[in-house]
Structure formats: structure tokens, C-alpha cells
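Recall that a protein's primary structure is simply its ordered list of amino acids. Everything else, from secondary elements to tertiary packing, is in principle encoded there. The following example makes that idea concrete.
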Amino acid sequence: MRHQLPSLARLALLLALCAGILPAAETLAGGRRAVSFEVNGQWIGEGVSFSPYRDGQGPDGQPLPTRAEIAADLQLVSRYWKLIRMYDSTGVTEETLRIIRDEHLPLKVIVGAWIAGEKKPADPEKNRTEAANAIRLANTYPDQVLAVSVGNEACVWWSDHRADPAVVIRHIRAVRAAIRQPVAIADDYDFWEKPESRSIAAEVDFIILHAYALWHGRPVDHAVDWLAHIYDQAVQFHAGTPIIIGETGWATQHDATRTQQGQEGDLMKGETSEAAQLDYLRQHYRWVRSRRVPTFLFEAFDENWKGDGAKSSPAAAEKHWGVFDTQRRPKSSFAAIIREFYQQPR
């Protein structure tokens, strides 16, 4: 039998939803932790993936950005977003949180713990270190860390760092037991639509879903309709578990010569240009503001270290998802969005 909520409880739930608060449930120890996307009465659900690496810098043995460079990037990003996402718990992530705290920037962060398959003897310790660092950051910067995502595209079948679900769950439980913030896991929609995803969903406070119309051969004029369909299907499939969109966007270049199965020249059918990105961004902003689905745009800046860096074509799509170029100049697409969406009352 279906129990009706008392009228006051229904009203409270409605008010919470309107305020951008994803409600808690009783499926986890202590109940599912609610994650709020409202700060001081302002909805902050428009987010962006933040990575401050510039040309000649990178996370794997290359020089790292300086404090001044990270601070400059944060000042720029905070003009347009109040919510950022980072993917690991390295020193760059900690420096980012420290700057946000010390300079009183109006930014909240979803911090990541990078979890990979444990195939080599050293891998379990790497995962434990990531999880431990994420715990430390969440507890050291409680006012800056909105939530922690344990794992990023670690479960979907095509992942290059795919991990056994038992490994992922072990780290989710360890992190969640040690912090107060909500805990999530991020993965591609291709994982979240499969039955095996339910065991992972049962362990988290909310789901972070990735979905790219461009990677799935859609033209730009159908991109957000496709995204909305994917999101609504996931919400139905995982009824009762809150879902946000953790990655979506449109690249301004791609390497059309990479035509082997599964590569960008094979999968990407839509135009990649600043004009196409503008078309996408207009749809994106209208939909996110209309539906109030917390959504992270991928990403703030172009990054030339990605896609195998200098080993790959300068046109490789992984280098060109940003709305700012590598010199922190807004692309013509985002310059138009600034005029249309940010220079008028919201």
C-alpha cells in the first residue's frame, strides 16, 4: 500500500526541491545525505569542470600550475560559476581549496578520489592514498567541499582504468564513513543504464552522470534533447537516487582522421567549431535554468596535455572542450553566452 505524506511533509519536500536540495532517503547508514545546490538563497547548480593546467603543465610528471596561476583561474571562473568539479585529491586540488578559503571566493567544490583497477601490486595503495587524501580535504575544508566523488568513469565497460565494483564500493564506504559531506560516484550513462549499476547506486548519496551528444553521433541541434532524454531515463531507472549531470559539453575541434572503431573520427558526426559550441551552449543554458538539474559543463579551459599531449594531433577533441582557450581568452562561443546569459538580470 502506498502511504501518503502528510500535507506539511509534502509541502516541506516541495519547498526543498524548489530550493535545489536533493532530499535524503533511508537506504544508507544514517540515511541518504542530502546535497544542496543553494547557497545564501542562490541556486548554484550551473557548474563547470575546473583544471588549471596550462601549456607545458600537466598532472603526470610535468610542471604544475603555480598558486598565482590557480588563483587567477579561480577568479576568472568565479565570475560565471559558483560550483566547480575536480577529479582527484592531488596537491593541485588542495591548493585550489586553500585559495578558495583564503581569498573567500564564492565557490563550492565537488572533490574527486581517482580510483582505478587494482591490477598491479602498487595499485591498491594508490587507491587508498587517493581515498585518504579526499577524506582529509573534505574534513580540512568543510565549507568549500560540497561533496566527494569516489571514482570517475571507473565502471563503464570502455574505461581505460576500469575497476571491479567491489573495489569501488570498498572505497566509497571508507570515504563515506569518514566524512560528513554527501558521497557520489561519477560514470558514463552507458554504465548507469545497466542493471549492474544498481549495486553501486545503493552505496552513494547521489549519482553523477556523464553524457555527450557529440560522442554519440548526434548533430548539435538535437544535442540537449538527447541529453534530456538520457537524464530522464536514468532518473526513472534509479528511482529514489538523486542524479546530477557531471559532464556534458561540445568540443570546438576534433581529429577526423582517427577513424578506427570507437575513435573520435568514427563516433563524432556533428560539426565541431566555435559556432557549433555556441549553438550547444545556448541550448544547455536554457535547459539547465529551466529544469534546474545540477549540471557541470565540460570544461572551463582547453588543455593541450590531454589526449596524449604532444603525441596526438593538436586537433584532438580532448584538447578542445573548453569555453576558454589555453590563454584564458573566451572563445567566440562563450563571449556570446556572456552577453546573452550573464549581462542581464537572472
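The radius of gyration is 20 Å. The first strand starts at residue 21 and ends at 22.
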